[in-house]
Amino acid sequence: MTALLDAGRPDTTGDGKTAAPRSRRRGTIRDRFPGLALPALIWYAVFMIGPVVAMFVIAFMSWPGMLTTPTPAGLDNFARVFADETFWTATANSAIQIVVGLPIMIGLAFLLAFYVVQKPRGHRVLRYLLFIPALISAPATAMVFYAMLNPDGLVNGFLRPLGLEGNEWLADPTTALGAIIAVELWSGIGYSAVLIASRLDGVETEIVQAARLDGANDWRLAWRMYWPIARDFIGVVAMLQFLSMLFNSAQTVLLLTQGGPENATTTLAYLIYRKAFVETDLGYSQAVGVVLFVIGLLGMWAIRRTLRATH
Amino acid sequence: MAQRAAVARRLPLRDRIGSITSGTLAWIYAALLVIPFYYFIVSSFKTNEEIFESPLALPTTFDFSNFTTAIQQADLGLAVANSALTTVAALVLTLVLALPASFALARARGKAGKIVESVFALGFLIPSFAALFPTFLLAAALGLFHTRTFVIFLLPATALPLSIVILTSFMRTIPRELEEAASMDGASSLQVLRQVYLPICVPGIATVLLLNFLSFWNAYLYPLILIGPDTAQRTIQVALPTLKVDAGTDYGVLMAGTLFTLLPVYLVYTVLQRQMQRALLSGAVKG
């Protein structure tokens, strides 16, 4: 995963230092073991790694309520999860969210980045604006969209004068998931665009000018030159947004629809939350957590394969 | 700019379509960013009826009563104080843990250093959210359930991987000779860290602080679950959604409350715009 960050900064000399020849003082234990890292490591182990390990343990326990004593359950939780229709609805919702949302987000972010990098009139304003959603918390974003999407809100206020019938966007099972995806796109595209633009800024202007004189139009320039050059970095941004969609969507769902109507917006991440804190079916919840963990790894691997460097 | 326009003029119209589409897209997108903003700012000065009837009209009077109602109704003043306390304490704790660790990892020569470094780097992969329930159990086990204190302990752990990766790569750029000269003069490790590394690392530290400020201030699920409903302890992000009521939300009040939660972030953003953009870019993560 350091590769992930290194790919993002092609110009930093990550390991520029060469091991200095050491004649004196070589290889004492103090030198080899980074002792000052110990407090951070312990802290990290207790508060982050510990709970994740516990998640794997609880997934194999029967724990039907906070106050009951857990008992070993083997694979029972997984059997229950896989036999549960709600789980499959949630899986389908998460799949739609990612298969539809992620390509749109990355595609549009790339085009925006391409546009900003050409330094057209107003590109500074655009760069400033693109950052706005990255600053706003999930609750604030959700509350603004809650106001806009309500039956008397801004969106319907726009549609009505056009003679279109408004909708209860968040309460209608056919549009609720779309609304959640729209909120995520709103908060993710600009930020991804700024990240990708930081990479495209490094593309040599001479090559671009030459291609332009050879008659390449912007569309060709974007997809045939800039995309391949930035491909591996776009993969990094895609992975970050993938993880954020997969896991953080739980907050947006919780704030806007609580999984409803009729499970239409229950994603896997939200299902973990609901089973743990609403229905207190803890074994089930953590079994879904394990499933999500595996999906996360598989997805990262798939994105890496699709968008790995071509050169 | 002028050069580019000249090139564009030489191309036939058909070839400029790409530029026109991406330009149109870009400005439509900008509008999609600005309109919600405009809407919610003007709404925070209006009543429900005004919002419903003419959503985009400017408010007739700049009446701050929605703000006072929001602040009273959700106890936002106290919530801001809680958020500030939690954020500042967690930021300090993050630096206290991450600085020595990064220093040690940047100087480590053996295998152990590499292993520890990759343990932290792997942290990007950990979906800590899925482990929310075990974290909740940990809070209970430590006797810190439903307290800000536990969140202050937890947030630095979530920020350590990124902070350490950034600070370590920063400290690697410092020539070893500097440090060796200092230790020849009899400086201890911690003195070297304080007197040689810290002054040089100020930009790296600023990056880490800004990045973590955003994610700590904006944190929602952890504070919601771990601090719970207690109005005396809850943070601003947890308090805000309580303005939304199932039946009959006062949208003016809700939007005023939302604006109120954004003010500190905007203050920081306008003052430190450049630094903050740089921080977000090198962070490459979103809360």
TrEMBL record, chain A:
The question of whether Nucleotide-binding is a record keyword is answered with no
Domain ABC transmembrane type-1 intervals: 87-303
Please classify the protein's predominant subcellular localization into one broad category.
membrane
Can you list the GO cellular component terms from the UniProt entry? Answer: plasma membrane
| InterPro entries listed in its UniProt record | MetI-like, MetI-like_sf, UgpAE/MalFG_permease
Taxonomically, which superkingdom? Bacteria
Looking up Gene3D superfamilies in the UniProt record yields:
MetI-like
Provide the protein's localization: Cell membrane
User: Which PANTHER family is this protein grouped with?
Assistant: BLL4140 PROTEIN (PTHR43227), DIACETYLCHITOBIOSE UPTAKE SYSTEM PERMEASE PROTEIN DASB (PTHR43227:SF8)
Please identify the protein, giving its name as recorded: Multiple sugar transport system permease protein
Q: Which organism is it from?
A: Promicromonospora sukumoe
TrEMBL record, chain B:
**UniProt key word Ribosomal protein:** no
**Cell compartment(s), UniProt:** Cell membrane
| Membrane topology reported for the UniProt record | Multi-pass membrane protein
Q: Which CDD domains match?
A: TM_PBP2
Q: Which Pfam families match?
A: BPD_transp_1 (PF00528)
User: Which key words are in the record?
Assistant: Cell membrane, Membrane, Sugar transport, Transmembrane, Transmembrane helix, Transport
Q: Name one GO biological process term.
A: transmembrane transport
Q: Which residues are the signal sequence here?
A: none
A GO CC annotation recorded here is:
plasma membrane
Q: Which residues form the ABC transmembrane type-1 domain?
A: 80-272
Q: Which Gene3D superfamilies match?
A: MetI-like
| Superkingdom | Bacteria
Listed transmembrane segments: 20-41, 84-106, 118-144, 150-175, 196-217, 251-272
Q: What is its main location?
A: membrane
Family to which the UniProt record says this protein belongs: Belongs to the binding-protein-dependent transport system permease family.
Which protein are we looking at? Multiple sugar transport system permease protein
Which source organism? Promicromonospora sukumoe
